[in-house]
Design goal:
The complex is a heterodimer. Chain A is α+β, with helices and mostly antiparallel strands. Chain A contains 17 helices and 27 strands. Chain A folds into three domains: 163 residues, Aldehyde Oxidoreductase, domain 4, CATH 3.30.365.10; 166 residues, Aldehyde Oxidoreductase, domain 3 (Alpha-Beta Complex); 296 residues, Aldehyde oxidase/xanthine dehydrogenase, molybdopterin binding domain (Aldehyde Oxidoreductase, domain 4, 2-Layer Sandwich), CATH 3.30.365. Chain A has a seven-stranded mixed sheet, with helices on both faces. In chain A, strand 10, helix 5 and strand 11 form a beta-alpha-beta unit. In chain A, helix 8 runs parallel beside helix 16, helix 12 packs parallel to helix 13 and helix 15 crosses helix 16. The longest helix of chain A is centred in the C-terminal third of the chain and has 28 residues. Chain B has two domains: 120 residues, Ubiquitin-like (UB roll) (Roll); 69 residues, DNA polymerase, domain 1, CATH 1.10.150.120. Chain B contains nine helices and five strands, in the order H-H-H-H-E-E-H-E-E-E-H-H-H-H. The longest helix of chain B has 16 residues. Classes of the chains: A alpha+beta, B alpha+beta.
């Protein structure tokens, strides 16, 4: 079989790839040695705090910072937005203060006098009738003949209302940076970011616009560890630029990490999505028509329509209409699988209700229609079967309306999802030194997904070395650029650039040592810490002996993605099933068990891949049951910008979770594909469907709070 | 009535109520008796009205991981800020800053507390152990090793707080059930969703610590 030289090793040859390997930075993290941006302390460093707008929509009419400026210990004050500016959301940054301690900086904020002219605002969008001119038509698409399909007397039709509220990212490490001008025009910035390589350009551009002369290549960005991003940390953000300006003004390093309330209010928002959906099927369960009128908000910019209908894109007759609602709330940020969890809720809940109306088992219904998902229909059927087996569907499922005996009502629910996940652009320097040491350098970042571990495994596998032999340097723009970690693009990008770099470096080493082993270079392999002659392991050099032949000159090569030989692809699917119990007296939903069957091509590290899925299920449980950015119609502010009322699931809230990664023939040969987003898409819909199955009524919107459960039971809409 | 109780003797009593988790059940007992004085406190001169600290900076000594540290700070500075901003001991993380998430958990006289809910001046005279004090000479504490093995971490920002809470929990409950783990570690929150790894990690660490392995 013709093999391209960078191709991944065949299944039988893989020593490390696909094994369960503990993350390489685990010891640093568990022992507290890992330094996050928030942990960077520099000599003479100041602390900055931001004063945000108390109003959702207002014009600044007076702003006096003089009392703050004259306070002892205050070293720099910057008006971010001045008199005349129209503020569009509560929490928007108005003044930044840098002082000798966090407490002095906070005191200084209290001394700032601002007057506002308050303006009308809208912060809640679920009731579209109140949106007035905040609502704008944002696209409509039609294919086939939906009117005819819905009017077919043979069609079984289900109509419903579904939705999912705005949530905030709530990264445990707040957004922010430490800025340190190490010279008049050289800036060192430590950022909590998903985008190390992109920060200098963004900060440099913004500073030059403010007439601060600094070249991008004189800005270094460092991020060794980041305490969560989930899509909210791609940009340097205005506060990141302001921090560099405060540091310039004060001529001292400054740390500016947002306070928790501001972070939850302005630095995280997953757009909401609501829809009235009508779906039709033939009596045999074949879906024939889709109609949706959706709306939602992502702050001042409104929203775009989620990809509807989701997964089942091949429904022959469709019409979709979307309304974008602009609100005076913190702007939307990408949230793990942007627009997909919303699409899953709107689609899978509507289809589940259709299955109930057809008196069909949803497992059978989704399997029957899997080909409407296109070429990946076969994979979905395999995943449905696997997930059903793991949750023991045959034993545990009951038709909707057949409530389980006893006080607690139990139900099962299914959802399907899809994602792309092709690798991003990445450059990786590989250095093999005469002393045998190996270094890989790239300005990528590890969000906790296991990026460091994946690169280390690829390098060790390719060079035939143990993991400990690889020194990996990431998280610093002094290394070659690598893409932002978003959209599940990192593993595909960095595994390919490091693979290509390591193959080239290894081949250069082969060329150097081939004469001493008396064979052509293409007859050598690197395995078990040795350079060996293929088929004759008695003829070999240890790695150190081989590298010693380099003399004084290291091998230095750069591997890139994209590049020759296909090492990855795009397009994955997954199926999740939830098993819940609902207490109809209290409205409390308890997760008994959730299962996830997920494909992602060739898995580099099974342990961290499974962790991505477990984590996604837990994040999904959290947004299904607890999370909502609750906005106050009266004050225009977020009512729960703290962690006691913005609730995250705890260790006792998650039930039993089971993950099954689809691997082996049919999957591995697709190469690497990202995994961060897909498994977080389905939990909301799966849990909503399980609750509907348990109760016999649909709780229309997420989060499924006790209050909403009780209201749905009382209303008793759907049987 | 309550305000009147906030006299020096009440301050002394309050020093024993380090954790918000125990505040409610502990407060009434301590305030009414005022007798829950630890050995470390007993060795100090009795607090009188003149001992009211602040509002300016005061010099205190914090004993962290067995080593004394002199710091000058305002009485309003929390133990968490004192550790992080004044002593550059950054293992305890600042997340919610109001006693909810557990990322700042440290051990005070053997008991886990939220360092954001303790004033630095309250911690004077007490033994403070942070995550940095649990591993020695590069040897991971059994809880840490089990967290690595079971991948009970992703971004890792909640992890030091979990490790410290888990260590303190196992000291008190050497043979926990899964239910007890879920109740005992319910005061720590993770955003990435690492609880699936944490449950077996705690069970494994319990076994290792009983086996008397290093640093247990």
């Amino acid at each position: 079989m013709p093999k391209c030289k960078y191709d991944w090793p065949e299944a039988g040859e893989r020593k490390l790839i696909g094994q369960r390997i503990s993350r390489v930075d685990g010891p640093a993290k568990t022992s507290g040695q890992a330094k996050y941006t928030y942990d960077v302390n520099l000599p003479g460093m100041l602390y900055a705090k931001i004063l945000g707008s108390p109003y959702a929509h207002a014009r600044i009419t007076a702003l006096d910072t003089s009392a703050a400026e004259s306070m002892p210990g205050v070293k720099a004050v910057r008006k971010i937005q001045d008199v005349g500016t129209e503020i569009q959301w509560a929490g928007d940054e108005i003044v930044a203060v840098a002082a000798e301690s966090e407490d002095i900086a906070r005191d200084a904020l209290d001394k700032i006098k601002i007057e506002f002219e308050q303006l009308p605002f809208l912060v809640n969008e679920e009731d579209l009738s109140r949106a007035a001119d905040h609502a704008k038509a944002a696209g409509s698409e039609k294919s086939g003949d939906p009117d005819k399909a819905f009017s077919d007397p043979e069609a079984v039709i289900s109509e419903g209302y579904y939705g999912i509220a705005t949530i905030t990212h709530c990264c445990l490490e707040a957004h922010g940076s430490v800025a340190d001008w190490t010279g008049p025009d050289t800036l060192k910035t430590y950022f909590s970011t998903q985008n190390v390589s992109g920060i200098p350009g963004e900060v440099g551009e913004a500073l030059r616009q403010a007439n601060i002369d600094v070249k991008n290549n004189n800005i270094e960005t460092i991020c060794q560890y980041v305490g969560g991003g989930f899509g909210s940390k791609f940009s340097a953000d205005r506060w990141g630029v302001e921090n560099a300006r405060l540091a310039k003004l004060a001529n001292k390093p400054v740390k500016l990490l947002l306070e928790r309330d501001i972070d939850l209010t302005v630095a995280g928002a997953r757009p909401s999505s609501y829809a009235k959906v009508k779906v039709a099927a033939k009596k045999d369960g074949t879906i024939v028509a889709w109609q949706s009128d959706s709306w939602g908000t992502g702050g001042p910019a409104g929203t775009t329509m989620p990809p509807l209908p989701y997964v089942f894109t091949g429904i022959p007759n469709k019409v979709t209409r979307h309304t974008s609602v602009s609100t005076n709330t913190g702007p939307a940020r990408a949230w793990r699988a942007p627009n997909h969890p919303q699409a899953a809720v709107l689609t899978m809940c509507a289809l589940d209700d259709l299955a109930a109306k057809l008196n069909m088992d949803p497992l059978e219904f989704f399997s029957k229609n899997a080909d409407l998902a296109g070429e990946r229909g076969k994979v979905y059927r395999e995943e449905l079967q696997k997930a059903a087996e793991l949750i023991d569907w045959q034993k545990n499922w009951h038709p909707r309306g057949h409530q389980t005996p006893g006080a607690m009502k139990r139900g099962l629910g299914i959802s399907l999802h899809t994602w792309g996940g092709r690798g991003h652009n990445s450059s990786c320097n590989v250095n093999i030194h005469p002393d045998g040491s190996v270094e890989l350098d790239l300005a990528s970042q590890d969000l906790g997904t296991g990026t460091r571990t994946v690169i280390t495994i690829v390098a060790a596998e390719t060079l035939g070395l143990p993991l400990e032999a690889i020194q990996l340097n990431i998280g610093d723009t002094k290394y070659p650029p690598s893409g932002a970690s978003g959209g599940s693009t990192t593993v595909g990008g960095v595994s390919a650039s490091s693979r290509r770099g390591c193959v080239d470096a290894r081949d250069q080493l082969f060329a150097v040592v081939a004469p001493s082993l008396g064979v052509p270079a293409d007859q050598l392999i690197a395995a078990d810490g040795k350079i060996q002659v293929k088929g004759d392991s008695s003829k070999s050099l240890t790695w150190k002996q081989a590298c010693a032949k380099l003399g004084v000159k290291s091998i230095q090569v750069t591997g890139k993605n994209p590049g020759p030989c296909s090492l990855g692809s795009s397009g994955v699917g997954g199926v999740e099933i939830a098993d819940v119990s609902v207490d109809p007296e209290t409205g409390i939903v308890k997760i008994n068990k959730m299962v996830c069957a997920q494909d992602c091509g060739l898995i580099i590290d099974l342990k961290t891949a499974e962790s991505q899925c477990y984590g996604a299920l837990i994040m999904g449980i959290t947004y299904a049951l607890f999370e909502q950015k609750i906005m106050d119609d009266v004050t225009g502010r977020m009512l729960n910008p703290n962690m006691e009322f913005y609730k995250l699931a705890g260790i006792g809230d998650i039930g039993e979770l089971v993950v099954h990664m689809m691997t082996g023939p049919g999957y591995d040969e697709r190469g690497t594909i990202g995994l961060g987003e897909p498994p977080v898409i389905s939990p909301g819909a799966a849990i909503s469907n399980a609750v509907a199955n348990a109760l016999g009524v649909r709780v229309p919107t997420l989060p499924i709070t006790p209050e909403k459960v009780l209201a749905a039971i009382e209303k008793g809409e759907i049987s | 009535m309550r305000r009147k109780k906030q006299k020096p003797e009440a301050v002394t009593a309050r020093k024993d109520n380090f954790s918000r988790r125990d505040f409610l059940k502990g407060a009434s007992v301590a305030v009414s008796s005022g007798l829950l004085v630890t050995e470390a406190q007993a060795a100090r001169p009795p607090a009188g009205p003149e001992a009211v600290a602040g509002p300016g900076r005061v010099a205190i000594t914090l004993k962290v991981n067995g080593r004394p540290h002199r710091v000058n700070l305002e009485p309003r500075v929390t133990l968490l800020d004192a550790l992080r901003d004044y002593l550059d001991i950054t293992g305890a993380k600042k997340v919610c800053d109001r006693g909810v998430c557990g990322a700042c958990t440290v051990i005070l006289d053997g008991k886990p507390v939220y360092a954001c809910n303790v004033l630095a001046i309250q911690a004077e005279g007490h033994e403070i152990v942070t995550v940095e004090g649990l591993s020695h000479a590069g040897q991971l504490h059994p809880v840490m090793a089990a967290f690595v093995e079971h991948d009970a971490q992703q971004c890792g920002f909640c992890t030091p707080g979990f490790v410290v809470a888990c260590k303190a929990f196992l000291d008190k409950n050497p043979n926990p059930t899964t239910d007890e783990i879920e109740a005992g570690l319910g005061g720590n929150l993770c955003r990435c969703g690492t609880y699936v790894g944490i449950r077996p990690a705690v069970l494994e660490a319990a076994q290792t610590m009983k086996g008397g392995k290093a640093n247990a």
